[in-house]
Amino acid sequence: MRLNIEGLLVYFPYEYIYPEQYSYMLELKRTLDAKGHGVLEMPSGTGKTATLLSLIVAYHLEYPQSVSKLIYCSRTVPEIEKVLEELRRLMDYYEQQAGEAPKILALALSSRKNLCINPQVRSARVGKEVDGRCHALTASHVRIKQKHDPSVSLCAFYESFDAHGREESLPAGVYNLDDLRRYGRLKGWCPYFLSRYSIMHANIVVYSYHYLLDPKIADLVSKELSKNSVVIFDEAHNIDNVCIESMSVTISRRTLDKCSQNIDSLQNHMSKARESDEEKLRNEYRRLVEGLKEANIARETDIVLSNPVLPDEILKEAVPGSIRNAEHFVAFMRRFVEYLKSRLRVRHVVSETPITFIHDAYDQVCIDRKPLRFCSERLRSLLRTLELTNISDFSSLGLIANFATLVSTYNKGFVVLIEPFDDKTPTILNPILHFSCMDSSIAIKPVFSRFQSVVITSGTLSPLEMYPRVLDFRPVTMATFTMTLARQCLCPMVVTRGNDQVAISSKFETREDVAVIRNYGNLLVEMSKIVPDGIVCFFVSYVYMENIVASWYEQGILENIQRNKLLFIETQDAAETSMALDKYHEACGNGRGAVLLSVARGKVSEGIDFTHHLGRAVIMFGIPYVYTQSRILKARLEYLRENFQIREADFLTFDAMRHAAQCVGRVIRGKTDYGIMVFADKRFSRNDKRGKLPRWIQEHLADSVCNLSTDESIHIAKRFLRLMAQPFSKEDQLGLSLLTLEQLQSESMQKRITQIAHQV
Amino acid sequence: MAEQVQLLVNNVRYKKRDGSLYMMSERIAWCPEGKDQFELTAHYSDIKCQKVSPEGKAKVQLQIILLNGNSYAFHFAHDTQASAKSERDSVKNLLASMLPRFRKRIDKELEEKNKLLQTDPELFQTYKDLVVSGVITPQEFWNSHAAKLPTSDSPAAQNVGVSAAFLSDVRPQADGCNGLRYNLTADTIQSIFTTYPAVKKKYLEKVPDKLSEKEFWTMFFQSHYFHRDRVNHGTKDLFSDCVKKDDQDIVSLLNSGVKDIFSDLNYLYEEDSAKDEGYGASVDPGTSAKGKPSNTQIMHKNIIKRFNHQNAMILTSRNKAIDKQSQRNGEAAGDGEPPTKRTKLKEATTYDDLEENNDKIELELKLQNSDRYSHGPTLVNQIHQELSSRNVREGMNIVLTQCRNYRPKLALALSSDDAAAALTELSPDGAVGNSEQASTNIVQRLLSPEQQSELKTLYLSASELLRHFWLCFPANTPLLQEKVSRMRKSIEDFHHTRVLPFKEQLRRCVVHANVTEHLEDMFTVAYKKFHSWQSKKLRK
Known about the structure:
With 760 residues, chain A is of the alpha/beta class. Chain A has 36 helices and 22 strands. In chain A, a hairpin with a 7-residue loop joins strand 11 (414-421) and strand 12. In chain A, helix 14 crosses helix 15 and helix 15 packs across helix 20 (369-385). The two termini of chain A are 30 Å apart. Chain B has 540 residues and is of the alpha+beta class. In chain B, a hairpin with a 7-residue loop joins strand 4 (27-32) and strand 5. In chain B, helix 5 crosses helix 6, helix 19 runs parallel beside helix 21 and helix 20 (478-508) runs antiparallel to helix 21. The model of chain B is unreliable at 283-291, 321-336 and 433-439 (pLDDT under 50). Chains A and B meet through helix 3, helix 6, helix 9, helix 13 and strand 9 of A and helix 8, helix 9, helix 10, helix 11 and helix 13 of B.
């Protein structure tokens, strides 16, 4: 279908279109036209990706000057692969319609674990180890060494890429991870470095958030991406936490012990180096005098240790004299580590700002602020000079150096927290230093200021106005779209009490209440009787789920569930959960039906979709509030209140509701899909909670279904399922939730479409 | 009668008469004493069920109930009750073994016959003609068509899966004296064995050499293994190594990985060197929870683990055979990329309802004379004569370049409604364009309503006639040729009797415009065609 979106010819690779897709395109185009940022909430399963890609590709082809590149950030590897698959479809459509595919190079970038084709390196399977092995074969000093000593082994694929890979660029096309590997094998080039090199001139890059938000990686990978790019953060409902994670550091006793060992071995290496080749160290010294500018142009393979955000002024300065000499620097680090150890010896909880921390460090061990700032860069240079291959061994030292740089660079938005013991086990000493970022805007600020258009989008972003506030940016468009439906295919409801009229809730006071637990159990048993195929349940935390499962076992509820369906439970172990999930899929697939017990904020709730029969009902047991007693959270809440005028309760509810919405949203993945969404907690019926759900769910959450007992909810679910079981054909949808080009262009539809988008 | 008598029982009374009961391979029969004819026979396939008199009753009886509702009671009048009972039981047992066999066969036969009739319409027709009308009996009919029925080798019965709740089905019942009673059935035992191969192994090892079956199961139900919530401490437990075996199973299952890469959580998230431990606000449990987890926590984790394992085992017990097959299909291609992954991706990214249905019926173009189709109408020749070939080529080039360089100015494009409105405005009878050429539309102003309606009817009839006329070509059958001549005659008639008078009438009404021109043109073309056809025919 070829569309005219306010004067832009858009190829949309389908014969029909959802009204909200059209509306989404309009909003997106306006955002791009204004060269500003946008926040767009579009219900899941309405073809958001296809819509985004169609419009932006068309925009890029029409105005290559103003939008030269699309950077598409997604959350998980399968999602990345899906984006490229949709793009491939679009390109095929272009080819079919216009005779030839546009000259667009689109590729995915992922970690070495997913791209490496060297069988030895690949066999490691764990991300960190693959990286380590890769370094050992490709770091520049290893390669220099090989010239003198042929016995040193290198990676043939990298060598081949280095020799020829940069001369001819990747031919235009869509390269998914598998395609990159295949191409790499064909040419004998390393797909990872090929991909990293190619993203500079590619038109469309698809990768994970971290490549853009985590300064440690962004510095290496995305630094030189063109300024007039459009950046999309898909599934961005959790973006503030990603930002915070990427800037926070946690230091335990063990880290410090390892760090001391690192320093010792570093010292050894140094003395050895001094004996054999003193010139090298002297050269380094000279280089450091000249400043860090050179370090900035370090070659790409030398990602020995990555670098947190370095303010530009530091890069222009020379490394301070006190740590310029390698020995001095090592001594300096030792001193700093000892200082940290002494801090960890406290018996009570300490919470302070970076400034007081630096002051204290100065008072205690005379460590100045300035050299601290250079720690990370200095360590990098030293490791390079010493030609150490196994840099993954020095990760603890790198962590401390990064911490030193961060704590001395940022005065605001961070907190230093020292906890001598875990709150749950106050007798066991386990001191931990948290250096926690509280301001999510710090990590994302470079992105907003560098790129002309940044679009944040997801199925669940409500309430929209929260995001610009916590991320500190000014969007030009903020819109949420409703879902046009020919039949009401989602059935949200709030169950507030069991059949015995006891209110159900996961709130702290009633958590251990047997009646509540039993009512939760009965709800699930009843649901498992009437819902076909798969049911997914979400609990508020692992501990809560474990307790409930144990009580259910004692009360015989699990047996009753098993009479109807098989039962699988998420655990904290990823492999075990994957297995459970796989079995769950199998059980749903072969008709036995299954129940999956899972945890909000867990991996399943974030990354796995339960399409069609894999999820006919989802039950949210309780409101997934974050653990509020955590001091890090408290500090963050306080910071948010003081700096962004966001009340604690507001933020907590916002956070809980976006996770709840995310959980229940897993079951609806399209208009032909259908699912029941049960919110099983009394508190969901309150307006402050309900109002924070995405509009497309809220719409169907009438007052009449907001205060149900188990029986009533079963009744409603039964009726809903009976309705949904009726045949549903395209003709039923056409004209309402599915449009042909003609229908789209009719005046009445255009009027209706303007109502789909709600500007905030 | 060449039937094999499988059992003969004397002294069987039926309706108070002595006689003997015969059990043959396909039926049961009773013959009164002193006669050599069966007074009563019943096919096994007609028997619905049998009933026996309760124990301790004076009369030892057996009753068979037929499908049609009739029932016969046989009284076993032997000398002693014991012998009567033993005879009765032998009959009962034989009947019990026979009945299911026949019942199954009957159902299946019926089904097969039905299917055959449905798939073979000719046979169905003969069946209707012969059987339904009563010419022959169904029996005869099927005897003659027996070859068409599939041979009745029964396929392997489908395996019944394990019920997920099989363990809860053996709920213990308190036996009143401080003990528990478990009811085990063969099914449950089978379920336990398939779900827990370790228990089966143990069973084969111990029973019956070292333990009796009862002891074994008692120990099983007492074991920590059965009570999944208890933390396993002692090694005295018979099943403690089963737990270990299970743990190994779990590990090996985990190592084998998951089939579907999209449900592999390890694949899901990007792992990068920069995400080393220590970064991020959340402390990973390995470093933080140094304190030993409490006993209850371990217990809870244990329950979860066991449940996952048990359910996985239940699931796999069912489809081992299927699994093997699918594994073979899903084996990784040389690239290390399972072929299913690509299809999965495709599946995940297509929206069925947005796509065009492919099941549209395509109309086939049937060409009888393909020459004419590819060369186009002869009219082209005229243009060719007017234009030199160079001109044509130049023109083509111009059009082509225009097409190629065509850039729609979409920003200026109108919505289709607006465009349609503009078009109507600009069209001949619209508000803007009102040229003289638009003759047909002037009709409305020129003619009175009656005249208009008459013109309309003229057009309708004329087009009907012409349609028939043109349909005759190519007139290659005598029938068509005859029709052509006839049509031409009627067109001529129509022309003279209807159109010309109408024209005359108009002239009288002082309407100058020649509204019938088009009609007459059409007639002329038809005449021409007829003449050329006729001359051709004559020439032949």
